[in-house]
Amino acid sequence: MGNRTFSNILLIGGTSDIGLALVRELLHQDNKEPKRVHLVSRSDVSMSAAQSSLNGNANMHLTRSGKVDFREPTKISIQIGNILGSEEFDLIIISVATIPSITPNLIDLISINFVSPAVVLDLILESQLNRDCQVVLLSSALIGLRPRDNSFIYTASKLGLDFFARGLQKIAFKKNQLIIVRPGFVRTKLTKMSKSGRFPQSPDELAKMIVPRIGKTKIFFAPRFLQPLVMILNALPERIYRKLP
Predict the structure, then answer these.
(1) Which of 66, 112, 143, 194 is most buried, most CB within 10 Å of its CB?
(2) How many domains does the chain have?
(3) What is the pTM of this model?
(4) In the chain, which ranges are E strands?
């Protein structure tokens, strides 16, 4: 069974390297049918670069659907709500994240990584649930690990969102309508100043793994071996776990 094709795509986090790679991969796999791609992001400057990375596909109509600030969930509720209420999307990608070195303010970090994306998921339920709309939520493979000194703030914020999304999968979303993607270390603008993690991958490599799983599974570790690896690491005694690099 082949991959589903999508004609009206909303990327929330329109400057996300991973989100843009997903859109490029979708365009590459189905470049014959016309596509509408809507980008929602915080920065005008970065948005221009994002547009440039997608231009060149003759069948794509690109729209900048809005400039939003994910540090302000109340405004997100109004802005994203208006966008979702005005269109019928068949794919929504949520790829919003920050790290402490970029966003040191704890409230802002939690708002960007957890609260605002959670608000977006709730809005999707209100407006798109019965429209055969698929949803891709970018999470993190780190959420399954015990706290570490160098990552617990970021991981805690992503864990909150991941847990919230899993709850919605059980009580509201249709079967496999929402896929939670838990990638390992990805080389992006966000992580370029960070120490490279184990098994690094590019956004394009990640996108090639994700696209075939849309609509077919609820949770996807990328690459897949991360799931058993996380289970093994969690089984280690604390004294050994603390010594891991």
Answers:
(1) 112
(2) 1
(3) 0.90
(4) 8-12, 35-41, 60-67, 91-94, 134-138, 178-183, 219-222
